[in-house]
Amino acid sequence: MRLIGQHTLITGGSSGIGQAIAYRFAQEGARVTVAGIEDGALEETVQSIHASGGEAIAVNADVRCKSDVERMVSEAIAAFGPIDTLVNSAGVCKPAPFLEIEEEDWDLHIDVNLKGSFLASQAVAKEMSKTGRGSIINISSVNGIASEGDQVHYNASKAGINSLTMSMALELAPLGIRVNGVCPGFIETRLTKPLIDNQEAISAYLKTIPLGRVGLPEEIAAAALFLASQDAAYMTGHSIVVDGGQLIKLS
Ligand SMILES: NC(=O)c1ccc[n+]([C@@H]2O[C@H](COP(=O)([O-])OP(=O)(O)OC[C@H]3O[C@@H](n4cnc5c(N)ncnc54)[C@H](O)[C@@H]3O)[C@@H](O)[C@H]2O)c1
Prior knowledge:
This protein is of the alpha/beta class. The chain contains 8 helices and 7 strands; from the N terminus they run βαβαβαβαβαβαααβ. It has a 7-stranded parallel beta sheet with strand order 3-2-1-4-5-6-7, sandwiched between helices.
């Protein structure tokens, strides 16, 4: 119970990595606000936390929209009080060759992944500055550090998030707010399901991962838990890579 008495707000919290973080943080004693755009999945996530004895609410909010984000933060605080941790997990990834990326898909990746993390972080940091404490965790990607083909818009949005993490950490440190990130490698969620379901493609892909397997959302939740906890009290501005060793391999 490392987060007892704390309140965590998680964008994109109704599926995949965000949902695993919601479940783990609730198990560790946090009251959890699960935000996103899929009402049914948000409600199921909250019900499941309640069924395990935890406390959670769902808030519908599109992270691209400033008024939605401001309402999300007000509803969260009205329900569970000051926010101790914000996790920015909302994200999209729609691979396409560079020469074929449509302007609207470029905008979608930058708006959800990068602008959404900025809007939520700014709105929450304004509140955290009143209490003089807080932790923001950006779910980035190894694609923000190295480039993967057919994902120029996604890669650029995640590189932007890594810069956002460092830049916000610098300005928010004097206010008592830590900002860190997690850069997951290849994690089993619906984003990666098309590749996982393709036997030939996945066996070739697994050869690029030294640990030889796909990662689990729970393994990203474990890194996020460390960053949210007192164990990371002296850590700000950095992103932890959780990728089965993928980035250390030359070929
Ligand atoms: N799965 C992986 O291998 C992997 C690897 C690296 C990084 N990531 C990152 O992890 C995060 C979670 O991805 P996931 O794999 O769990 O996939 P996912 O599709 O299950 O999760 C993405 C979540 O974001 C929400 N979302 C999308 N657009 C939104 C919007 N406009 N406003 C609010 N919420 C919105 C979705 O509803 C969903 O709940 C993303 O930021 C993704 O880039 C995933």
